[in-house]
């Protein structure tokens, strides 16, 4: 039996421990610092944290090159610190998801070191080797700008090993039952330290053909149904979140008819949603709704505006893909990486138009399924294009305008990445402290939106539908839930817009939940009057019973 209903109305906030807050002045964020900042996360209103890899790693790929699955990088703390962090998060009603990378390890992992040294070692078959690379299975590499292919020669082993990612990240042989048992032991270990579930990195590549013969599991989905069985047996409310950037029609497979992943990142919606808001046109949203599969009853989508990698545009149609490459790139032309996306923060994508950033968050938080917020986007942080590739969007959290953004008291030379200290996104101009008590700030608006979502059960349990209007720069959707109706209206344009749509309840039973947009009801129609980049959520009782205004309590007697 599982008890994952908590996921239905969850809002997830994602961060990297090493760049969030440094408690001991060594230049690295740590779990003690994260414990200190739980109050901020709690006040933001989110109820689930996804924390990115914190394991020992050479950090050639931001920790996604794991060298030990059972430990914490000593610069970030200890396993005991992690356990205390989960305890303190749980005290606040916040669940914790961790990243697990099972597609590959670092070449520094002891499994690979033993495998390369001893062909008779049990670990040799943990990886995929060939002594006949000319006749071995070949395919594309995920980082074509850096890797010539998927086979690299190891002079210690005297053979080539298979890697779909960087050459320092050899793929694990998921066909080996002993490897899968290792996965299960890792899951159990972190659940016992307090984790509430896992984001499984690179779920799609895990199922792709691998090795000399290009083989896969006989029933590939069993790889993930096994993972789900293990986490459910260990902790009934634990969930699995998939990073599966596959073709839209193939995405339902990862849910395994409700027996594999509980949640899956919606890369299709991400590309279309963020693009639509940027071009002030709703057609990408209509297209996304057409091509994203309906997975009701088997799983949920995790929607997001930006993540900690590049803004991946591959799911856009070809013409829009090329337009987005040119229209949203930086002036120097170096924001484009891996031939698929921009390494810009959300605020930069929208030219630091914070009204548009706020409206984008309203769109995200008013959509069905599970929203995921990227740490720093709630205050409008930017990127550092001088940093290598994806590291541009992985700079430390900007807490205040004191030296080093209040992130650390360390000498700047000791940090993993420097803070942004010049230009319009510098910590002196963009930081938490300046926005915390300003009711008009981006941070305050995001907090209001997260709170509004938590007060709207219609989003979780209602019937969702898109409302067609006569403008292509205004998006309206609604949720019908029993007696209640929730309408969410968004103006993607910079200029004011007024649109009208059908609306059954009379005006005196409706109220604005969040947003500055105005509205009126007359003769069975709703007219919304929205300023540039404005939004409003309107709730009404469909049967004419007046709904409470904000702060008002009505009798429950009918």
Descriptive notes:
The protein starts with 11 loop residues before the first strand and ends in a 17-residue tail after the last strand. With 558 residues, the chain is α/β, with parallel strands linked by helices. Helix 8 (267-279) runs antiparallel to helix 9 (283-291), helix 8 (267-279) packs antiparallel against helix 12 (354-366) and helix 12 runs parallel beside helix 14. It is globular. Strands 1-2-3-7-8-9-10-14 form an eight-stranded parallel barrel. The chain is 25% helix and 18% strand. Strand 2, helix 3 (79-91) and strand 3 form a beta-alpha-beta unit. It has 15 helices and 22 strands. The longest helix is centred in the N-terminal third of the chain and has 16 residues, at 177-192. It has two domains: 5-103 and 176-305 and 351-451, Glycosidases (TIM Barrel); 457-541, Sandwich (Immunoglobulin-like), CATH 2.60.40. Its EC number is 3.2.1.1, 5.4.99.16. Keywords: Glycosidase, Hydrolase, Isomerase, Transferase.
């Amino acid at each position: 039996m599982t008890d994952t209903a908590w996921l239905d109305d969850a809002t997830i906030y994602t961060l990297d421990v090493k760049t969030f807050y440094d408690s001991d002045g060594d230049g690295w964020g740590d779990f003690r610092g994260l414990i200190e900042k739980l109050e901020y996360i709690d006040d933001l209103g989110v109820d689930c944290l996804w924390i990115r890899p914190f394991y020992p790693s050479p950090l050639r790929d931001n920790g996604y090159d794991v060298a030990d699955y059972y430990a914490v990088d000593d610069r970030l703390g200890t396993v005991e610190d992690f356990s205390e962090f989960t305890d303190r998060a749980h005290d606040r009603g916040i669940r914790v998801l961790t990243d697990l990378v099972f597609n590959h390890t670092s070449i520094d992992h002891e499994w690979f070191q033993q495998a390369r040294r001893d062909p008779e070692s049990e670990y040799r078959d943990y990886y995929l080797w060939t002594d006949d690379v000319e006749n071995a299975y070949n395919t594309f590499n995920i980082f074509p700008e850096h890797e010539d292919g998927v086979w690299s020669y190891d002079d210690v082993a005297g053979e080539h090993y298979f890697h779909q990612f960087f050459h320092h990240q050899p793929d694990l042989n998921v066909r080996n039952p002993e490897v899968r048992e290792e996965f299960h032991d890792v899951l159990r270990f972190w659940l016992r330290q307090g984790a509430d579930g896992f984001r499984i990195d690179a779920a799609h590549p895990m199922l792709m053909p691998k090795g000399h013969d290009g083989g896969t599991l006989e029933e590939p989905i069993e790889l993930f149904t096994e993972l789900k069985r293990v986490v459910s047996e260990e902790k009934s409310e634990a969930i699995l979140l998939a990073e599966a950037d596959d073709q839209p029609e193939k995405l339902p497979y990862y849910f395994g008819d409700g027996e594999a992943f509980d949640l899956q990142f919606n890369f299709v919606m991400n590309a279309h949603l963020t693009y639509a808001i940027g071009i002030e046109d709703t057609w990408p949203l209509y297209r996304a709704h057409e091509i994203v599969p309906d997975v009701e009853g088997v799983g949920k989508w995790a929607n997001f505006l930006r993540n900690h990698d590049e803004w991946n545009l591959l799911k856009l149609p070809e013409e829009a893909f090329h337009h987005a490459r040119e229209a949203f790139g930086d002036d120097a032309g170096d924001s484009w990486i891996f031939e698929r996306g921009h390494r810009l923060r959300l605020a930069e994508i929208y030219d630091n138009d914070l009204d548009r950033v706020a409206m984008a968050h309203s769109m995200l938080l008013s959509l069905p399924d599970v929203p995921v917020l990227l740490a720093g986007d709630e205050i409008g942080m930017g990127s550092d294009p001088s940093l290598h590739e994806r590291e541009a969007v992985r700079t430390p959290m900007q807490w205040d305008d004191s030296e080093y953004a209040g992130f650390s008291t360390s000498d700047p030379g000791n940090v993993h990445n420097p803070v942004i200290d010049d230009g319009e996104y510098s910590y002196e101009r963009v930081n938490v402290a300046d926005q915390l008590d300003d009711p008009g700030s981006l941070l305050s608006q995001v907090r209001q939106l997260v709170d509004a979502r938590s007060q709207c059960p219609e989003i979780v349990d209602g019937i969702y539908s898109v409302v067609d209007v006569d403008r292509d720069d205004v998006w309206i959707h609604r949720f019908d839930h029993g007696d209640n109706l929730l309408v969410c209206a968004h103006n993607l344009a910079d200029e004011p817009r007024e649109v009208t749509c059908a609306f059954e309840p009379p005006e005196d039973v409706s109220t604005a939940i969040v947003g500055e947009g105005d509205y009126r009801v007359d003769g069975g129609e709703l007219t919304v009057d929205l300023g540039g980049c404005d939004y409003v959520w309107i709730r009404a009782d469909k049967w004419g019973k007046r709904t409470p205004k904000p702060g008002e309590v009505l009798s429950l007697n009918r």
